[in-house]
Amino acid sequence: MGKKVKIGIIGVGTIGSVHAEAYAKVPEAQVVALCDLLPERLQEKGKRHGVTRLFESYHDLLADHEIEAVSVCVPNRMHAPIAIDAFKAGKHVLLEKPMALSQKEGMAIVAARDAAKKVLTMGMVRRQSPDAEVVKAAIDSGKLGEIYQIRIRLIRRRGIPGLGGWFTTKGESGGGGLIDIGVHFFDLAMWTTGLWNPTRVSAKVYSKFGSPMEDYHYISMWAGPPKFDGTFDVDDYAAGMVRFGDKATLSFEVAWAANAKDEQMLEILGTKGGLVVGGDTVLLTEVDNMMADIKLNFKQDGGGFPQEMAKFVAAVKGEAEPPATGEQGVIAMRLIDAIYASSAQNAEVAV
Ligand SMILES: NC(=O)c1ccc[n+]([C@@H]2O[C@H](COP(=O)([O-])OP(=O)(O)OC[C@H]3O[C@@H](n4cnc5c(N)ncnc54)[C@H](O)[C@@H]3O)[C@@H](O)[C@H]2O)c1
User: Fold this and answer.
1) DSSP assigned state of 78
2) 53-77 burial: b if 16+ Cβ within 10 Å, else e
3) What is the Cβ-side half-sphere exposure of residue 103, based on CA atoms within 13 angstroms?
4) What pairs with residue 55 in β-bridges?
5) What is the pLDDT of residues 172-195, one digit of tens each?
6) Is the pTM of this model over 0.90?
7) What domains lie within the chain, and their CATH numbers?
8) Which residue among 47, 93, 304, 314 is least crowded, i.e. fewest CB within 10 A of its CB?
9) Per-residue pLDDT for 1 more than 70?
10) What DSSP letter does each residue of 174-225 carry, written as one string?
11) Ligand 1: which of 12, 14, 105 to mutate, most ligand atoms within 8 Å of CB?
């Protein structure tokens, strides 16, 4: 094992702590600094993760020359400014999803990466789950044949995060469930199938549950209790269809809240086989002229955030390519921009 890569984490809320715990499992990484605007949280997280260099301003963390790489774990509005400043300061960046508020911001991040000649990887952790790797391997080895349709159902019955806080304020988040959780499955669908050319989209987003906030009945409220004096101006349900040229389509439903059963499902249809991801991972195919449902087994341990961090650190050390590229992040943002545009215009639009 060579020298440890020195890491700073910017934003130590829910996911910043998940990053700190994941880096602790990577022998080549050492978290040496944390940053958060909230002094009490910063002190508490410093103690929890055993980190003593604590900064209230991310500019001060970026000025620390010992830090080689940063995890950016702040609300979405701050992704682009902090990532761009990090590249200007010569750091490598692991940027949480969604990449930014828009494709335009995403492209500015990629330009800053290129100017700095540093590593950028997107926090697309869903790709790092063991089932995703098995699915990609099955597709890459031709088990599906020609892929022509993908279906995503990503439904929370009541799962709006931090009602009234930054997640539900469009200026801070860029949107609701679509950009928050939809981005994981759009990325997963495009990465597993290799269909990175969304061309047109027809979609509608709705906002039916978050307002008035007092009427929202939830069982548990993760990301903190509701702030009834806060804002809810984002989508809680989105549905639509994406075209990939004239060869393939993707239909989706993504909900933070809906009167429907909780579900996380990705279905991929090909000429030789179909795949269902979510619950059991099953390949639906034909064997010796018989219909066969083949359950794909995969390691139950491993993957997830520690694997994401290990791959990021390997990329920083020049030993591997980044596990999810900025260019792919930009495509996901372009698709999400187009979905919101289609909904606003009530029409099919170009991606
Ligand atoms: N990969 C995943 O599965 C996953 C899961 C949850 C959240 N996320 C993403 O992680 C990011 C953070 O989400 P969260 O749930 O941790 O939010 P959070 O509100 O729990 O934490 C964000 C933290 O950033 C701090 N912060 C805000 N502005 C800052 C600034 N300018 N400088 C320093 N610190 C600042 C806040 O004080 C807060 O502590 C979001 O982009 C979210 O989409 C990803």
Assistant:
1) G
2) bbbeebeebbebeebbbbbbbbbbb
3) 15
4) 35
5) 999 999 999 999 999 999 999 999
6) yes
7) 5-124+304-321 (3.40.50.720), 127-302+333-350 (3.30.360.10)
8) 47
9) no
10) SSSHIIIIIHHHHHHHHHHH------EEEEEEE--SSSSGGG---S--TTSS
11) 14
